[in-house]
Each structure stands twice: as structure tokens, then as C-alpha cells.
Design a protein that fits this description.
mainly alpha
Amino acid sequence: MSRTILGLLISPLAAPLTVYIALALAFPASGFSGGDTQFTSILVGLVSYIVCFVVGIPLYFVFQKHGNKHYAAYCSAGIIAGIVSSILVFTFFPGFLGDTAAIATVLAILAVAGFLVALSFWVIAVSEPNPLFNADAPKRRAG
């Protein structure tokens, strides 16, 4: 259970990191200052944790109940959560709605962020440990 808690605490950090990198690359020196990028990343981080606890935890239990441990299910759910989050962004910030390029950019960035959050959660909490990384660990004796 500790891997699950660790995944819930660490994986949502992928969203603000993704948004920060995307905004820094999209607006290197012109229209997007460092303070705006940092504020937007912090806001995305807060939303990411809210989505993680409101949507992610119940979905994790549904996946566990049905025995679904495949990464594609988690990543698909992350992409859907990113798209739903972008719809929330358009609801609270309707200034984006006039610009098709802005809509596509926000949608793509948040879908990628949702994918990376879900993938990092899967790697931390769900995936089976690789025995190659535990080669130095002492072997358990039967009996």
C-alpha cells in the first residue's frame, strides 16, 4: 500500500512540470514571462492534485477490483482526465474560446500532462518490480 500512497503523492507533479516545459518552449522570450509560467504551473499542480484525489483514487480502486493492471488503461484514463481538465479550463477562462490554436494547444498540453501523470502513477504504484533491478538483493529461502 505504501507504493500506492507514494504514487498518489508524486505522480501529480508531472502535470505542472509538463505545463511549465511546454509554456517555456512555446513562449521562450516573448509573450509569457517567467512569473506567469510559474503561476500557471502552480495552478495546474493544484488542479492536478484535486483531479488525482477526486477521480484518480476511485478509478484506481475500480481498476484494482476488476484486476486491470495494464498501463494502457491507466494512460487512457489519464488522457481523458487531461481533456476533461481542459474543458474545465475553458469553462473558467472563456477567453481561450475565441482562438482555435489556443484551444488545441491547451487541449494537447493537458492531455499529455494527464498521460504522464497516469504513466508515472502506474510505474510507481501498479507495475511489478523488475527482478533485474533487484539482482543484488539476497534471495529468499524457502521454508
